[in-house]
Design a protein that fits this description.
Radius of gyration: 19 Å
Number of helices: 11
Strand content: 5-15%
Structural class: alpha/beta
Strand order of the largest sheet: 2-1-3-4
Helix content: 40-55%
Largest sheet: 4 strands, parallel
Order of helices and strands: HEHEEHHHHEHHHHH
Shape: globular
């Protein structure tokens, strides 16, 4: 954190509250309408979907897809999309969707990244409704004495909330969201960890599985163009808690999970960690 909740930080939005609320409403309307267009016309229009559970690297995936396929990747759009493009989403699977690639990330890193994303939102003005909602959730979880910097102390309740209420994905927690997209026809899959390790091979395989005929030169260009160090201005693993792209690494959960946080996560998604290849058994949290 780079300041107390409600304080001004570099890059904070200077537009009026009325303008920000109007833009937020337009974005929400446009996203909902685009979702319907994707299901009804997405295939015929040649649209693509880049999807994942929030804080799994979906933005990075969409950027890689856009350059690899030679398609635009609209951001913060305030009019519905109805043209050939890569659409960023956290939707559940729908067989009417056009070609798609889904990104999976270790759920423990997702919870850690989610926590920092929400505490960062307390300082930003860009989305007033979202920031207000986050503040109310934190107040309900921790009370008026809430200290955003106490990550280890706050994570157990935060994980429990995300595994039960899951407001961002309308009640669908991480492990259920991943399973919902698993083994679906016409869907390519990547993992956040695989993209860190060998992004070209990971993208080539996923694009082909989704029905594209990827050109390796374009995929290599995408990987160079959207490398974390270029987009964030620092090396992967270097942390900036005031940035949307906070760290860009895997395994950061080990720096913040206590045994209690591990027990809470395991109670909800322990089997999923094993099924998805992140652990070999459910005893991992005993070492914390």
């Amino acid at each position: 954190m780079t300041g107390a909740p409600g304080s001004r930080i570099v890059g904070d939005d200077d537009r009026s509250p009325r303008t920000l609320w109007a833009e937020e409403k337009l974005r929400r309307f446009s996203a909902a309408t685009t979702h319907q267009i994707l299901k009804r016309r997405g295939r015929s229009l040649g649209m693509w979907v880049g999807c994942g559970f929030p804080k799994s690297g979906t933005n990075w995936l969409c950027e890689l897809m856009g350059t690899s396929l030679g398609l635009p990747v609209p951001v913060d759009y305030q009019l519905p999309l109805m043209f050939k493009a890569v659409v960023h989403s956290h939707y559940l699977y729908d067989e009417r969707m056009p070609q798609a690639i889904y990104i999976r990330r270790d759920g423990r890193d997702v919870m850690t990244s989610f926590y920092f994303y929400w505490t960062r939102a307390l300082q930003l003005n860009k989305n007033p409704r979202f920031s207000k909602g986050i503040a109310e959730i934190f107040d309900g979880l921790y009370g008026s004495s809430f200290d955003p910097a106490d990550v280890q102390g706050n994570l157990p309740k935060f994980i429990d909330y995300q595994m039960t209420v899951s407001p961002t994905t309308v009640g669908t927690p991480w492990h259920v969201h991943v399973r919902d997209w698993w083994d679906r026809p016409g869907v390519g899959h990547v993992s956040f960890e695989g993209l860190l390790d060998d992004p070209v091979a990971e993208m080539m395989k996923a694009l082909a599985a989704a029905g594209a005929a990827p050109e390796q030169e374009m995929v290599e260009l995408a990987v160079r163009r959207h490398d974390f160090s270029r987009s964030a201005g620092r090396r992967s693993g270097q942390e900036d808690r005031g940035s949307f792209r906070r760290k860009g690494s895997s395994g950061d959960w080990r720096n913040h999970f206590t045994r209690e946080a591990g027990e809470v996560f395991d109670a909800y998604a322990g089997d999923a960690l094993v099924d998805f290849g992140y652990e070999t058994d459910r005893d991992w949290y005993r070492a914390l």
